Amino acid sequence: MIVSPKSLLTLITQGKIIQNLSDRELSSPEGVGFDLTVAKVFALERGSGSLRRDTRRTPNATEVTHDCEGFFLLKPKGIYLVSTVEHFDLPANLAALFYPRSTLFRSGVSFDSSVLPPGYSGPMTFALTNNFSEDFELQQGARFAHVIFTAVTGDVRNYEGQWQHGRVSQPNNEEQL
């Protein structure tokens, strides 16, 4: 069951569940969730990824510098990791699901995400791929993703994984927890 944003606002204003929401989201959230904003952008550049039974690694990601107006340029066919201004601190009774704002796919930019499990703490990181033949502008602070919260019932083991606290990439082999 989706948990309505208005029913979460009291907890959120107490610093729980999600921090750093924009004033717009705190005062009048629209629909069934909250919009998330761009903090940093990283480009996948070199190195191969690997996902094995016991180890993993990801390509190296280098932070992209924005211009003086806060714009990042996403180059055609480029794959970017975008972190949020907002930080999550999910309790055991909530998980989060993420979706793109429609301007992304209407511009040829694909959005990849994962489920955010109970116990995760930190900003989220999503993959954006510019599939179009022209650059795509993405401004720091722009609303680019939408989060909805869903209730979790029953016993849950909280997330304790290595991506906790918003780590963006891991270019060296590491043992999976």
Structural class of the helices, strands and pairings? mainly beta
Report the sheet-strand fraction: 35-45%
Radius of gyration: 17 Å
Note the main sheet. Answer: 9 strands, antiparallel
Unreliable residue stretches: none
Shape: globular
Number of helices: 3
Mean pLDDT: 95
Helices and strands, in order, run as EHEHEEEEEEEHEEEEE
The count of β-strands is 14
The end-to-end span amounts to: 29 Å
Helix content bin:
10-25%
Question: What key attributes describe this structure?
Answer:
mainly beta
What does this structure look like?
There is one protein chain. The protein has 177 residues and is mostly beta strands. The chain has helices at 5-13, 23-27, 102-106; strands spanning 2-3, 17-19, 34-46, 50-51, 55-57, 60-63, 71-74, 79-89, 94-100, 109-112, 121-130, 136-139, 143-151, 174-175. The model has no long low-confidence stretch (mean pLDDT 95).
Please describe the topology of this protein.
Layout: E1 2-3, H1 5-13, E2 17-19, H2 23-27, E3 34-46, E4 50-51, E5 55-57, E6 60-63, E7 71-74, E8 79-89, E9 94-100, H3 102-106, E10 109-112, E11 121-130, E12 136-139, E13 143-151, E14 174-175
Antiparallel strand pairs: 1-13, 2-8, 3-6, 3-8, 3-13, 4-5, 5-14, 7-12, 8-11, 9-13, 10-11
Summarize, please.
The protein is mainly β and 177 residues long. The protein is built from three helices and 14 strands. The strands form three sheets. Strands 1, 2, 3, 6, 8, 9, 10, 11 and 13 form a nine-stranded antiparallel sheet that branches. The protein has a three-stranded antiparallel sheet with strand order 4-5-14, with no helix packed on it. It has a two-stranded antiparallel sheet with strand order 7-12.
